[in-house]
Design goal:
Structural class: alpha+beta
Oligomer: single chain
Number of strands: 3
Shape: globular
């Protein structure tokens, strides 16, 4: 899996999480003013998923 940062509309950036075959698994609901902001949001999403998986595994 990998994140893909893309300009959805002029000056509006988003992210998609791509699966092994290149299909979109998740997509950002929000748009961001820069690719850097979109990348930061994707990384925050990834950290949230990791934390949720840890909580599910522990109890």
């Amino acid at each position: 899996m990998e994140f893909f940062i893309e300009e959805e509309r002029r000056g509006q950036w988003g992210w998609r999480l791509l699966g092994r075959t290149g299909s979109t698994l998740f997509r950002s609901d929000n748009t961001f003013a820069s690719p850097l902001q979109a990348r930061a949001a994707a990384m925050a999403f990834a950290r949230s998923v990791i934390e949720a998986a840890r909580r599910a595994a522990s109890g």
